Amino acid sequence: MSPDRKARTLRKVAGRADATARTSRVADAPRWPQAIGALQHSVISGGLRRRDRLRFGSEQPPILRRPRIPQSRATQPDEEPGLRLSLRFVIPLFLALGAIAYAVVPLVDRLTLQWFERDLDIRATLIASAVQEPLRDLIRAGNRTGLLRFFTRITQDERLYALGFCPPADGQPVATPTLPSEVRCAELEKYSGPSGQLLTSPDGPLLVSVRPLQVDGAPAGTLVLVHDMSFVARRSAETRKYLFYFFVGLGATVALITVVIAQLSWRGWVHGLRALLRGEGLLRPSGKPEVPELRPIARDLRALISDLAAEQRSRDEAQLAWTPATLRAILRGELRGQEIIVVSNREPYIHVHQGDAIAVWRPASGLVTALEPIMRACSGTWIAHGGGSADRVVVDRHDRVAVPPERPAYQLRRVWLSPEQEAGYYYGFANEGLWPLCHIAHVRPTFRTADWEQYAAANRAFSRAVIEESKSPDPIVLVHDYHFALLPRMIQEALPAATIIAFWHIPWPNPEAFGICPWRQELLDGLLGSTILGFHTQFHCNNFVDTVDRLLEARVDRETFTVSYRGKATAVKRYPISIEWPPSSDLVAKPVEQCRADVRRRHDLPPDHAIGVGVDRLDYTKGIEERLRAVERLLEMEPQWVGKFTFIQIAAPTRGRIEQYQEYEARVRAMATRINDRFAQASHPPIVLKVEHHQPQDIYEYYRAAELCMVTSLHDGMNLVAKEFVSSRDDERGVLILSQFTGAARELPEALIVNPYDTDQCATALKLALCMPAAEQRTRISFMRGLIQEFNVYRWAGRMLIDAAAMRRHGRLLERAAAPERWPSHSAQQAAGRGS
After folding, report:
1. Fewer CB in 10 Å around end: N or C, the chain?
2. Strands 400-403 and 410-415, how do they pair?
């Protein structure tokens, strides 16, 4: 049920409540408008918050967990009668089962004994038939010693206790020493029955069987076989034990079912009685007036509650804990373990020479932050540009190296570009052309034909690497960012069965802005080679579809957000990127108090000194100048913070060959120096500018040591620094100041949202952050941590892989439906049969 529909329903309910308050004769009716108004405010405000998140952030709203309501003592009297009623069933049930077991066990023992006696009699007959011929020869020869040896050998069977032979006249019998003394040849008549006779001995019960022997058709004597029946007692004991367990289990099962049915029946009767007493059933208590004016209100409220409950149930059923194991399960289930190939310009690990050693760096990149945990979970291949000074040294002959260095989980394939290619493709077309074109940062884009040619050549080089690394004709290829707008079409032409997911990590401009690019149609054609094209926000999806509709002859379906071009459909979808959750234990291993002490000691700051932190590449879209102006304005407005607050800006150098970046770095350094000189009388500087690369562990140390983190991007697709700061604060302290021009602002409304161009507003946000009570900090950051926990990077990748799997299945169905000629027709089969 949409928030708008909820609002309309509640307004209708409130209107009916007002009318009821004016016309109803019931004394409590005037309280309805206030109650409905409160409900309307609650649901509408919640709906608006949910609508904001749906529009700007996650693909579905975070699931609000129902608070645990302690059991009221008032419900206990209702449950006690039900329990007593259940005991009335259970106790007689156990008594009846005990009586049945007492009667059944002797019967089972008797039946078991009869079965074994019958089996042993049959066995005695079989033995007598089997030994008749050897005995005949021994009897004719009168070989008593041979007879005894033969009997002794036969009685080695564990069931055959003794064996004896009685001649027909008064001859001397032959028997094994174990033959019981009670068995005599003159008294064999009592053992000659069809079922033998039981004897009792110190070794246990014995079964005596007598079988006649014949030689040449004449009686030759009697064979006496004695079987050991002690095993029957052991079997009977086991049977009694199993019967005991069976009746115990049967009793417990029947008792459980009885208790459950009794409880449900009792509660049903109680609730039904309560409904009748409230006048909700067929009967109404006498004397209670009927209020027909309240019926429409009740009906509308029931419909609203039913819709809300259905919506909550659907979200609960769709909830899934997104972890590396979840991703691997998707690959095994949805994609059957098919290979994953990631393509990006920036590599996740850079090898550089440091003296005589080789060091490993992790670049300051939101893309790497998001994708690296995915590759560790999926164990695929990452193809990237090798730009480190020692990158060529560590690769094998196929230009591969296993990463991460400390625990290899996937392969990194490096692509080498010449200095001319790198200058034209990366610094030229990608970052002097496309980057300023897609960001509203008031920097003019520059397009050169030579840069475009190098851009196309670099995309072809990466396409060859994808084809070489692909072990199957239909891999899943994830192409990342604006450096490879032509690559999806190249891969699609070389591997038509591949599933290509292209993700555009930066904003997509409106059609008018994008139209100034001289190669706009070629870029769109390349991106539409994708199976799925992803953006951070729905706004960027809308801009892309509008651009295609304006510039290409393509069929655009705005209901399903698909673009059909050159006989192929591309789905345009929103996938808000996120970060790993929970953060790596290495990043948050150091306690917060130790981080605070170490950072302050490193910068010669007192233990109670307040600090803020900013972490960015030194890029003109990140709003670092605006951030420093806000700090300066704070110290102007609130002089008491001079010498008591320091803002530490970590700015990783980037794209130093480009003139705009050189000028921007110079401006940032000059502004930091000017502000520090202006407040030179302060005991501690207001600005600490650190223009250098930092490892993730060092960055998280600053996150955990700061009172606040400030993100003032002028235009950003998502900005993962904001999410990193929130995830690092497991102490649930700290305040996030976030630019309204970032995608993260749609997902994290609990942050202090600011316009970075409004210096006074940013300075006020700094003051609010520094003075915010601990309880409010905890409330805000716990909400944000909960959202990041559910909408983490594994969910981002998992949703793309699930959609890719669905499109692969759909594509195979369409291929089979479009190619019936591959199956011979019935008439053709008949003709072939006649010809053969």
Report:
1. C
2. antiparallel
